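Onboarding guide, step 5: your first structure request.
Type a short instruction followed by the sequence, for example:

Predict the 3D structure of this protein.
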Amino acid sequence: MDIGASKQILIADDDNFFRVKLGDVLAEAGHEIRFAASGSEVIEEIKKNPAGIDLLTLDLQMPDIDGFGVLEWINAHGYRGRFPVLVVSGVSEPSHVLERLKTLGASGLMTKSFTPEDTLARVNKLLFPDR
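The system replies with structure tokens like these:
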């Protein structure tokens, strides 16, 4: 990875195993990783330092506020477009869910059955669109 290409990624997922797995893949690629285990933790992280997030990976199914609720909050509070949001789901989502995610400003969707290579390809496409 280029010097200066390290990005700050917030991984939001209530499943500790998945958070660590995804975090390891992205940290190994040179990124700085922070974690949130619930929708309200994501919102707190955004409020604290929105400029300190280059990418948010967002689980759809979380306690208290789910991924849809987080996206709605992002839109309602003027953070839409400040950083890409890659939605992560444990299952393949039907087309009406994909449409709703797009409408809410999600930048993409991937399932939790990812390979490290697929994850890095998707993340790099969002973080470095000009490459």
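Each response can be followed by summary notes, for example: Strands lie at 8-12, 32-36, 55-59, 85-89, 108-111.
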